């Protein structure tokens, strides 16, 4: 359902070339939501203020395609990432970690892509959250965070991405069970992907992503 809403929010039932777009124009989508177009002084076109049309007017057999540099989140994604995690019974431990580390910016700014380990994942990780220093928790949480909106297929296509932890990178691959993440120590599976929020995208993972080279736990 998330992906259907997302896909339809990128579609208009008309052939619209950039030369026909005026600043402030609103166009309805198939689900009767609206896209807002703005045009700056250099004639650059933006959709919903944040997504720039970087490659306009690609002619295809049944219409026109405009390549943009960001994901358009539909109004149905009205809950923030902070609210989503706080309301999820499966993420109460992770939310407590986010709250203690003052990551409440996930409710006001973004977009960010968050990999959210479940309570079971944290319990099975041998991490004693209560013994971690505030710096270690901050490093751990930033290793679960990527700037921008990144859907699962985009992560797979990219192969890797830089996290908000300086020098921390995640590698991505896919098997028949879906997207996998290699954090340099172990492999985690994405069990629920592409959960859209108003401040980003959440992917649920089945294990904690441990930053390589950082002694978070004693083995």
From TrEMBL:
SUPFAM superfamilies: FAS1 domain. InterPro entries: Adhesion/Biosynth-related (IPR050904), FAS1_dom_sf (IPR036378), FAS1_domain (IPR000782). Residues 1-72, 78-209 form the FAS1 domain. This is FAS1 domain-containing protein. It comes from Ditylum brightwellii. The lineage of its organism: Eukaryota, Sar, Stramenopiles, Ochrophyta, Bacillariophyta.
């Amino acid at each position: 359902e998330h992906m259907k809403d997302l896909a339809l929010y990128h579609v208009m039932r008309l052939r619209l070339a950039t030369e026909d777009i005026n600043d402030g124009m609103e166009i309805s989508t198939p689900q009767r939501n609206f896209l807002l177009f703005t045009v700056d002084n250099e004639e650059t076109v933006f959709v919903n203020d944040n997504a720039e049309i970087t490659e306009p007017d690609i002619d295809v057999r049944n219409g026109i395609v405009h390549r943009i540099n960001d994901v358009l989140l539909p109004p149905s994604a009205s809950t923030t990432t902070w609210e989503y995690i706080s309301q999820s019974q499966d993420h109460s431990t992770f939310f407590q970690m986010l709250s203690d580390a003052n990551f409440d910016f996930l409710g006001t700014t973004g977009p960010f892509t968050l990999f959210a380990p479940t309570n079971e994942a944290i319990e099975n990780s041998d991490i004693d959250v209560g013994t971690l220093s505030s710096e270690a928790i901050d490093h751990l949480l930033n290793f679960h965070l990527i700037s921008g909106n990144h859907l699962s297929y985009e992560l797979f296509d990219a192969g890797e991405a830089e996290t908000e932890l300086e020098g921390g990178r995640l590698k991505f691959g896919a098997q028949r069970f879906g997207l996998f993440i290699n954090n340099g120590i172990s492999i985690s599976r994405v069990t629920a992907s592409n959960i859209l929020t108003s401040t980003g995208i959440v992917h649920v993972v089945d294990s904690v992503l441990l930053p390589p080279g950082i002694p978070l736990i004693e083995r």
